[in-house]
Design a protein that fits this description.
Blueprint (H helix, E strand, L loop, with lengths): L5 E2 L4 E2 L1 H7 L6 E4 L13 H13 L4 E4 L28 H15 L2 E2 L6 E4 L7 H9 L4 H11 L7
Parallel strand pairs: 3-4
Antiparallel strand pairs: 1-2, 4-6, 5-6
Helix pairs in contact: 4-5
């Protein structure tokens, strides 16, 4: 799946990745999963965690993830579909949850690779501020959520 980022012939990023993200270096950080417990969802912890991981562990390359509702895989029904990659028909709620997560990560600045489930973000490109991300995620009605974010931003972690 993450091989979609790499040109195996030349051992570098694909032409699309190079032209879209213009990575300065060859670092690749894969965010395999960010799990927010259901009772803590909707408060901006996902993008906040992504920001901390991208600034703390990577410097000048690409961050990649596959936004998917992995918690739905705990007890998936038996596969009746021949295409192993098609979870939308065999796991109830998968398609809606996956679409929501993909939209959410797009707001953070990730872009989907064409023909792939992989989303990527350049660490050298200008990214939206955390305030902008929170505003885009929650809109004008998210006052409590914005206040939750401001409480965390007091620690100096509010730029993205």
């Amino acid at each position: 799946m993450y091989i979609d980022l790499i040109d195996p012939e030349h051992s570098c990023y694909t032409e699309w990745v190079e032209s879209t993200f213009e990575p300065f270096g060859s670092d690749l950080l894969i965010l395999d999963r960010i799990r927010i417990e259901p009772e803590h969802r909707g408060h901006g912890y996902g993008p906040y965690a992504a920001k901390l991981m991208t600034t703390g562990f990577a410097s000048d390359g690409i961050v990649a993830c596959v936004p998917a509702p992995y918690e739905l895989l705990k007890d998936p029904p038996a596969r009746e579909v021949t295409d192993e990659g098609d979870r939308t028909r065999c796991i109830p709620g998968w398609a809606a949850a996956e679409a929501k997560l993909r939209k959410y990560w797009s707001l953070v600045g990730f872009e989907q690779l064409p023909g792939s489930d992989v989303f990527a973000l350049s660490l050298t490109a200008r990214r939206p501020s955390m305030e902008t991300v929170i505003h885009n995620c929650f809109g004008r009605g998210g006052r409590k959520r914005k206040r939750d974010f401001r409480d965390r931003s007091a620690f100096g972690q509010n730029s993205f």
